[in-house]
Amino acid sequence: MKSLKSFLKTGAFSLLGLGLVTAPAQAVNITTSSDPNVLVNNILGSGITISHANYKGASIASGIFTNGLSSGIGIENGIILTTGNAKLAVGPNTSESASSNNQLSGDADLSALISGVKTYDASVLEFEFTSTTGNLFFNYVFASEEYNEYVNSRYNDIFGFFLDGQNIALIPGTNIPVSINTVNGGNPFGKNATNPQLFNNNSLNDGGAIYNLQYDGFTNVLSAQFLGLSEGVHRLKIAIADVGDYRYDSAVFIQTGTFSSVQPPKEEVPEPTPVTQPELPEPAPVPQIEVPEPTPVTQPEVPEPTPIPQPEVPEPTPVAIHKVPEPTTVLGLLASAAFAVTSLRKRASATTKTLN
């Protein structure tokens, strides 16, 4: 499940890269160091004496940071311990799953805080100290790439501040350890949140990415403390580790000079300054070509057609119609003609006889 989510996340486009969101103009600066004395002396404050410092972890996983206020984490300078590569903390946020696999083992004390899940890539800074007042304070911020998609799951990277074996990285005023499941904005973001007033969303997928920091979410500046230490030497172990696999880096930032016997002040956190996007000039209006009204085409006047004179046709001469005699008249005529012929024949016959 986690590997599938990782694939989907890393394939996503960066809204920041597309210019759809802004981030502070300056990013936190990281200088890696695994020298335990350098790390411890950086956070050392008043009333504390430190000895026998030891660091266990990858050389790239820890170091010194500066310019944290510009990135919005609320601490200007200090040390950083991570589960991967400390330089991955530098913003802006370009991935939901930034990771560095150091192939290191986890930590037994951290594994004891979460039963049944193995830890990996632990970074551990340990030292002994004495306090002049019997009290101990220091300021820190926890950040992780596992926000917000692994909130309320068992795959939460873990950290702890073990004072003589007891974890003092607690929600203020409670005995609840600070973790992804105890300080968040919910999953899905905005629903079922736990102590959201202590959380800062920086997820690309959930409308964040306004801080110049790679991690998808981080806590407010919190204070680890213990009052009434017994006299003598005490031991502090600062540890952080991946849970369940080597993926998705997490980090803890500890403020310079606040490992002290008196309550250190918290630095004022300025509002993140958004990167000024270059102002694009208003596009010059394209001149519109005036299209003249079309001139109507004058149709030539067509004269009325001159009538062609038609030749006068004379009235037809009536044809004389011969009267056909009535049948009775015809018979009479025929009879008369026959009689005449007969008479002529008789005369001719008589004439002939006379001659003879």
Features of the shown structure:
alpha+beta; 5 helices; 13 strands; 16% helix
Quick summary of this structure?
By secondary structure, this protein is α+β, with helices and mostly antiparallel strands. It has a domain at 2-13 and 27-255.
Topology:
Blueprint: H1 2-10, E1 29-32, H2 36-43, E2 48-56, E3 62-66, H3 68-71, E4 78-82, H4 108-113, E5 119-131, E6 136-144, E7 158-163, E8 166-167, E9 199-201, E10 217-219, E11 222-226, E12 234-243, E13 250-255, H5 327-355
Antiparallel strand pairs: 1-3, 2-5, 3-4, 4-13, 5-12, 6-10, 6-11, 6-13, 7-8, 7-12, 9-10
Write up this protein:
- With 356 residues, the protein is α+β, with helices and mostly antiparallel strands.
- Helices cover 16% and strands 22% of the residues.
- It has five helices and 13 strands.
- Mean pLDDT is 81; it is low at 1-25, 273-278 and 351-356.
- The strands form two sheets. Strands 1, 3, 4, 6, 9, 10, 11 and 13 form an eight-stranded antiparallel β-sheet that branches. Strands 2-5-12-7-8 form a five-stranded antiparallel β-sheet.
- The chain is elongated, with a radius of gyration of 57 Å.
- The protein has a domain at 2-13 and 27-255.
Q: What gyration radius follows from the Cα positions, in whole Å?
A: 57 Å
| Fraction in helix | 10-25%
- The chain-level mean pLDDT equals 81
Q: Strand portion, in percent?
A: 15-25%
Task: Give the H and E element order.
Answer: HEHEEHEHEEEEEEEEEH
Distinct helical segment count: 5
Number of strands: 13
Please describe the biggest sheet, giving its number of strands, its sense, and whether it closes into a barrel: 8 strands, antiparallel
Low confidence ranges: 1-25, 273-278, 351-356
Q: End-to-end span in angstroms?
A: 165 Å
**What structural category characterises the helix and strand content?**
alpha+beta
The shape is: elongated
